[in-house]
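Table S2 (text version). Query chain:
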Amino acid sequence: MKAKDFDRKFDNGEDVMADLDLSAARRPGQEVRRVNVDFPSWIVESLDREARRLGVTRQYIIKVWIAERLERRVA
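Corresponding structure-token output:
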């Protein structure tokens, strides 16, 4: 499909999702990068308790808490 045909379909409100290849789509700035962090055992135990209490993983707790802290610094 040519770009002008795609644009015409989109501008007319037609569904263009079938015309897109989303298999390689990425959100800029959302790529996952692995990091290793060493914590004292008391921190790991506290994280595990909180994760169990909330019914989530330790990794989830760490990511959410760090994201919240960084968002506060930006605001």
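Notes on Table S2: The chain is about 55% helix and 0% strand. The chain has one domain: 3-74.
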